């Protein structure tokens, strides 16, 4: 059984089905059936009268949520209302917990999360941009580039999402979180902590590792979206999948922004 590194995708209901998907080589013999044994999350079949989810649904909802976050972030940075970053982050965090634990596909909640995170990132990026002009946009371009690159990797099958890959990624994710916490605790006793976030060579290497883990997490997110389409989940789940992708993109943007600040320090 495989589970995503993204908490938003871990407990979705599953089912059977076979609809147009992200499948690599869908024209090959077997089509979606060739990947049927990989499905491990029960997304539930669309009930009578409900339309099953499609790739277009996922793409559209993800574009809407990402677009809302970018606009909210841009307006926050442009207006100079950087103080909104902390309350917006708190709102986004609370809403994300509600969505995850209730497995909610409510568009209002998902949009609230996206806008709140956009404001939070806009405030943070705006402040950083004052010190390093242009860095916020560079981080955005970098995030989009990683997203597109990993989508190409997934669709071409260059890296396959297998149980072994999932275990490796989960181990890497746990390792990264443990090191972050250890560095935070060490910071209370040693100036600079373990040196993982001080901008030095070790910090740069660690940041690259974290970006790599976040990037590979996108493969898991794509695979979960693929499973939802293959299982014939209700179209409303597109909002939930968009939320899951957004959580990874937010993490990726923050880490790329952090790395860029390291590289631009004198």
UniProtKB/TrEMBL annotation:
What is the protein name stated in its UniProt record? Bax inhibitor-1/YccA family protein
Membrane as UniProt keyword = yes
| Membrane-spanning residues | 81-101, 108-129, 135-156, 168-190, 202-225, 237-254
Q: Does the keyword S-adenosyl-L-methionine apply?
A: no
What the entry lists under InterPro entries is as follows: BaxI_1-like
Q: Which UniProt keywords apply?
A: Membrane, Transmembrane, Transmembrane helix
**What does UniProt give as the signal peptide span?**
none
């Amino acid at each position: 059984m495989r589970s995503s590194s993204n908490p938003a995708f871990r407990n979705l209901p599953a089912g059977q089905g076979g609809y147009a998907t992200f499948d690599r080589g869908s024209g090959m013999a077997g089509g979606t059936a060739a990947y049927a044994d990989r499905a491990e999350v029960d997304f539930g079949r669309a009930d009578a009268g409900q339309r099953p989810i499609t790739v277009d649904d996922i793409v559209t909802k993800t574009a809407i949520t990402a677009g809302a976050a970018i606009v909210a972030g841009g307006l926050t940075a442009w207006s100079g209302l950087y103080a909104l970053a902390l309350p917006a982050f708190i709102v986004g965090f609370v809403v994300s917990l509600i969505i995850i634990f209730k497995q909610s596909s409510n568009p209002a909640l998902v949009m609230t999360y996206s806008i709140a995170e956009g404001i939070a990132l806009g405030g943070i990026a705006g402040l950083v941009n004052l010190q390093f002009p242009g860095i916020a946009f560079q981080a955005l371009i970098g995030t989009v580039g990683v997203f597109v690159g990993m989508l190409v990797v997934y669709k071409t099958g260059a890296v396959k999402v297998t149980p072994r890959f999932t275990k490796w990624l989960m181990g890497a994710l746990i390792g990264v979180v443990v090191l972050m916490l250890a560095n935070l605790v060490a910071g209370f006793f040693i100036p600079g902590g373990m040196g993982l976030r001080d901008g030095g060579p070790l910090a740069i290497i660690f940041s690259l590792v974290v970006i790599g883990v976040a990037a590979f997490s996108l493969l898991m997110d794509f695979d979960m979206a693929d499973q939802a389409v293959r299982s014939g989940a209700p179209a409303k789940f597109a909002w939930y999948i968009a939320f899951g992708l957004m959580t990874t993109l937010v993490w990726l943007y923050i880490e790329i922004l952090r790395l860029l600040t390291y590289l631009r320090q004198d």
